[in-house]
Amino acid sequence: MDALKSLLSPLTSSTGPIQDTLVMLIAIFYFLDLTLYQKLVVIGGTVETARRASVSAWNGFIDCAFIPAIPGGWGTYSSSVPTAFFLTAHFSQEDYPYDWIMHWLSKQPAWGRSREFDITTRTINRHGMSQSTSGDLEEEEDASDETEELTWGGRRKRKVAIIPSVDTTHTIYYRGHWLRITRSKRFADYGSCSELKISVVARNNDILKKLVLEAKREYEKDAEHRVHIFMADTAYGCWRWNGARQKRPMSSIVLEPGVKDMILEDCKDFLRSEDWYAERGIPFRRGYLLHGVPGSGKTSLIHSLAGELGLDIYVVSLSSKGMSDNTLANLMGNVPSRCILLLEDLDAAFTRGISRDEKSTGAPTRASSSTSTAKSKEESEDNGSTLSLSGLLNSLDGVAAAEGRLLFATTNHIERLDPALSRPGRMDVWINFKNATKWQAEGIFKCFFPSKPSQSAPASSQSSTPGDVKDVSGDKIAVSKRKRSTLVVHTLSEEEIGVLAKRFADSIPEDEFSVASLQGYLLRNKTRPRECVEEVHAWIQQERETRAKLKKEKEEREAKERKEAEEQAKKEAEKDSKAEETTSADNKGKEIIAPESTSASSAASECGTSDVDLEVTPASEDETAQGDNHESEKATDANGSEKWVSVKGQPPDSSV
Ligand SMILES: Nc1ncnc2c1ncn2[C@@H]1O[C@H](COP(=O)(O)OP(=O)(O)OP(=O)(O)O)[C@@H](O)[C@H]1O
What we know:
Layout: H1 2-12, H2 17-31, H3 36-65, E1 76-78, E2 86-92, H4 96-106, E3 118-120, E4 122-125, E5 128-131, E6 137-140, E7 157-163, E8 169-174, E9 177-188, E10 191-201, H5 206-222, E11 226-233, E12 238-246, H6 259-271, H7 274-280, E13 286-292, H8 298-309, E14 313-316, H9 325-333, E15 340-343, H10 346-351, H11 370-383, H12 389-397, E16 406-411, H13 419-422, E17 429-433, H14 438-448, E18 456-457, E19 469-473, E20 476-479, E21 487-488, H15 494-507, H16 515-524, H17 529-534, H18 536-589, H19 600-606, H20 609-615, H21 619-632, E22 635-636, E23 642-643, E24 645-646
Parallel strand pairs: 11-14, 13-16, 13-17, 14-15, 15-16, 17-24
Antiparallel strand pairs: 1-2, 2-10, 3-7, 4-5, 6-7, 8-9, 9-10, 11-12, 18-21, 19-20, 22-23
The site of adenosine-5'-triphosphate has 18 residues, from α8 and α16.
Region (Disordered): 127-150, 357-386, 455-476, 547-656
Membrane topology: Single-pass membrane protein
Subcellular location: Mitochondrion inner membrane
């Protein structure tokens, strides 16, 4: 009998009454006069039936024990009669705790024993996938791709994470409790959304609270060195996670003295002043307008600030397809309270036809010509963008707008902005970015050629064979696979670097080249500091020639386009006058006295030319005046203090 019991135990995977019953049944059948085959069929059938019955009994018990909590909520503990013992927490991909738990799960050694799981080089978070820094599998990848982006070590580490597979229940042991974890997918308005359910047998929810807090701590520790970027998805009116970037140190941004400190201190001061704002009834929001030439560090400064302040960045492009007042209001109402909200290239949105009039999509003040306005409208319609300026203003500071966020807007053309948009209260601090000064040129040179000897670099250093570097474009460098070993660059002494930086700065003309273009030149010479200084004059000459050539080509193209437009207009005018002559001849033939309203001017009006004339207004002069006002006026912030900063020239007032 005992031998039979031990034989059955792996099949039934249970002990007690079920197994005893089975043993009894088998014993009865054994003594009946059945053939061996019949006995086997009866035994097999009985065992399988018992197994299924026990499994379904267990599942039924679990199902009735856990009443699903409200979807979308996180950490929602549900209970019913049997939940005196069982607790269930639901985590939705739409909220942060989902990320924390997924990250925590990916670190659990229990995966080594699991029989079903997903493997990823990224960990899933609520908005998509993020670079994983965890997992129990880890290996240094041999760089086989010739054009792979290099780190200073010359190799990249790719880590592999194990996460729960969808629609499978996993069991993990945690602090004396068995956690049953199920990941599932549901379809939301904006696409699919994952959910996580964690059930545990416990008297209260302490164990789940502990789990969430531990997961949060670990997630934040890992995210310490990264800035998360979210992009507005206009199709679904929600935020999509777009990646996590390495934090950029503030020291790598070269701005005139005091500017970085001023803006960083201003942001910090704002973030700790919630009560101050509440006591005075001032909306807890702050806006920064970064304007100026392209490639001067506006975006870089924002990324660097986000890293320094530990905030995520939410980016909206107002000119993106399908943007409407409702979509924008929805997006703005859904940014978390502490974040950086970035409106990029504000002026680009205006040329796409934002208007004060909610119905209209024409540009507000920038109608430099009728053709451009018509074109702008057309573009706007093609684009499906129906955003109005009033819609934008409402989104920024209407009742639904998020509190506690830092709004950053960037533009290359401040003169194109509607004054309502840039007024204090919406944009409290303005910073003007100009082309590189000599001071900046010296600073960026020192950033590129640090004087400390400990810096490690890829094989393309001075000591490597010339020709290792195949191509340089932007931040990426393609290097021969053979030469991927890490070398120590013996950098120059601090004194020598100082002298070279000074010489470099002396050669750079003030306010002619952007910092980005200087960076491009330095990148091409990143292992040749001396040559870089010696060859800078030749580079400047070459840059000037290229610019002159491009300018000439642009002028020629514009002249050609103008000529074509004039010819077209002339042809249309001829056609119109011919049509008019025919009409008047017909009228004469019928001996009808034409009324005065059929004169040439009203015919032109019918053809729409008077509308066109109306559009050709001296708006550009007004705008210039507006732009000048921006430049000369000081903005007053919500606290009543004046904010005006110019990156070039005078360092900002220390009181700012
Ligand atoms: N002041 C600066 N200090 C350090 N790096 C800079 C600076 N300005 C520009 N750069 C470098 O130039 C590149 C472009 O800079 P960034 O995108 O910040 O310019 P931008 O002003 O935002 O340009 P745009 O107006 O075209 O968006 C970056 O790689 C950045 O590292």
